[in-house]
Amino acid sequence: MLKTPDDRTTLLRLANVCLADREGLFDVVLGAGVIGSIEPASTVNEATEALDLEGRLLLPAFVDGHIHLDKTFLGLPWRPHVEGHTVAARIAAERKERATAAREMPMKVRACKLIDRIAGYGTLALRSHIDIDEEIGLSHVHDLLALREEVAGLVDIQFVAFPQSGLTAKVREMMDEALSLGVDLVGGLDPAGIDNDLEGHLDTVFELAEKHGRGVDIHLHDPGLLGTFELKQIARRSAALGMQGHVAVSHAYALGMVDAGELAATASELQRGGVSIMTNGPGNAAIPPIKALIEAGVRVFSGCDNIRDAWSPFGTGDLLERAAVIGYRAGFASDADLALAFDLVTTHSRAVMGLAPVTLEPGSPADLVAVKAENLSEAVASTPRERMVFRKGRPLA
Ligand SMILES: [Zn+2]
């Protein structure tokens, strides 16, 4: 059963709120989907409907920049993970698993359970890749476009047309149709490592993007110099087409595998091409050097990626926990580092999705989450479990 906020439009006063960037307790008044005012506690008109937050820390809601709604097994009995040590082996294993999972519970129902779960954690916007291949055709696209309508009151969703099993001519046609139907971005997958056709794959991805006036988000697992070569090709195409700010590459493990000179050269091209990099703090794969990329002017953002699916049995969907995982993997420790980990799952992901920033100032969108933590550093480092979530100024039921 999906949590949905009630639709009353009266003001709501959040009393006794802590804020990450200032001392003291505050009363934050929410109304009409935005923050109306922020005043020292107990100075606001008592007549306003009030909710006492008892000193909880109020933060921007989380934004998952990379998730797969159509892959999760959530809602099914536990499924032992099927081994597969290469991307190609994992794709083959998933195709078998996918059919049996769909018979046990329709994908749309599982995706809905996942949205319900992550919204409860405080994720109120997400970018989901949708599988398109010759076996399932556009069925996942149709189901998830319908689901997006049903949950619009709860979360903002962007979709990427994702050629998980390769970008064949037939898949290209289906991706074209998916973009006409309302899927937002063009996806891609290891142009060299999976499709063995770097030029052809990127030609198709960027032709579709140009035709539909859409952005691009490519999965890139290819390692080392092969991966950075592909990143530079993507960045040059983005620059040539004036697509800066509308192109992302997800994973880009290669950035964590090359020497400092190659990293600097690649980062410089990514900056010129306005290409953002998504990392989820991968388990046993190389992680892109987040701070070096940001210093080079490259936007880095984050998401959960796989949540209990054929790719990984792990993943709770909690982006605050994900910020901690990324910080742990990246060797983050200072307060500034922990704040950066938080930015990856909030400000940076919002910017990549083109959403208005949540600033904890009057006029800011009131998509918010409150946690029991002394400050932002503790919130990131300790993953407090209890959450109070506010969507467009109203508490989730
Ligand atoms: Zn992914």
TrEMBL record:
Gene3D superfamilies: Metal-dependent hydrolases (3.20.20.140), Urease, subunit C, domain 1 (2.30.40.10). The keyword Hydrolase applies. Coiled coil: none annotated. Residues 50-377 form the Amidohydrolase domain. Keywords: Hydrolase, Metal-binding. Its EC number is 3.5.4.42. InterPro entries: Amidohydro_3, Metal-dep_hydrolase_composite, Metal_Hydrolase, Metallo-hydrolase_Enzymes. It holds the Pfam family Amidohydro_3. One of its GO terms (molecular function) is deaminase activity. It is an enzyme of class 3 (hydrolase). It comes from the Bacteria. Transmembrane segments: none annotated. This is N-isopropylammelide isopropyl amidohydrolase. It comes from Hartmannibacter diazotrophicus.
